[in-house]
Amino acid sequence: MATQAKLDYECSKEEWQARLDLAACYRIFDLLGWSESIYNHISLAVPGEEGAFLINPFGLLYEEVTASNLVKIDVEGNNIGGSPYMVNKAGFTQHAHFHKHLGERANAICHVHTTAAMAVCSHKDGLLPTNFYACNFQNQIGYHDFEGVTVRAEEGDRLLENLGDKSILMLRNHGPVVMGKTIQQMFVMMWSLQRACEIQVATLSQGEAVVVQQDVVDVHQRDLAVMQGQGGAGLFDFEAWKRKATRIDDSWQQ
């Protein structure tokens, strides 16, 4: 494991909880096979500090991320937590633009390169309503054409425009960006999206798929909205996976 960084300032109780949740989220993503070497990102706004968010230290594997070594930066890219680690520019540029312009709607953001999600992002029709999970997202996803690695700030406005009022932006030929008001909400959307993509890839490998009609999708989404209230917008899912991550390795809490 990497040497643990120690905070050189007295952070608030709310920030420490955010650090714990985000560190746990990195470990959960790794357990689920959603990590990509030292790349990709999950970020979380710091409660009560406008324009400040936490992100992974560049150079560490997801299994090495802990609450104390997360990097605290502002939306202009300044290290405001005294971390000795650097931040990947691609992660900062994209995530900072969303945090800066979307407020609490994008308190938690992830970008992944999972095989299934990238495959769907590379399909000309994107995510199709051919399975239970995919029907969750019909007409609720934005698409953004590939412009290369996201390190140029001027791409940010086009990302926002293509996202619109959605919570998921599929970067074509690249991978998805998923955001939520809470890390729990973001997590359960990412989990469902990943399942939708995995099943689509498997289905299309068999040939022509059965497409669910829009009127049925509408009923599905209506009823799903009622059921989601029982799960605390991903709270139960996230806490269950935190328990699993802790049983395997509790060092994320450091």
Concise structural overview:
With 254 residues, this protein is an alpha+beta fold. It has eight helices and seven strands. Helices cover 41% and strands 12% of the residues.
Could you please describe the fold and organization of this structure?
This protein has 254 residues and is an alpha+beta fold. It is built from 8 helices and 7 strands. It has a 7-stranded mixed β-sheet with strand order 3-2-1-4-7-6-5, with helices on both faces. A hairpin with a 6-residue loop joins strand 1 and strand 2. The mean pLDDT is 92.
List descriptors:
about 250 residues, seven-stranded mixed beta sheet, about 10% strand
Radius of gyration: 18 Å
Mean pLDDT: 92
Report the major sheet.
Answer: 7 strands, mixed
Individual helix count: 8
Q: Catalogue the unreliable spans.
A: none
Helix content range: 40-55%
Order of helices and strands: HEEEHEHHEHEEHHH
Approximate strand percentage? 5-15%
Identify the strand order in the major beta sheet: 3-2-1-4-7-6-5
Instruction: Kindly report how far apart the N and C termini lie.
Output: 12 Å
Structural class: alpha+beta
Instruction: Let me know the number of strands.
Output: 7
- Characterize the overall form: globular
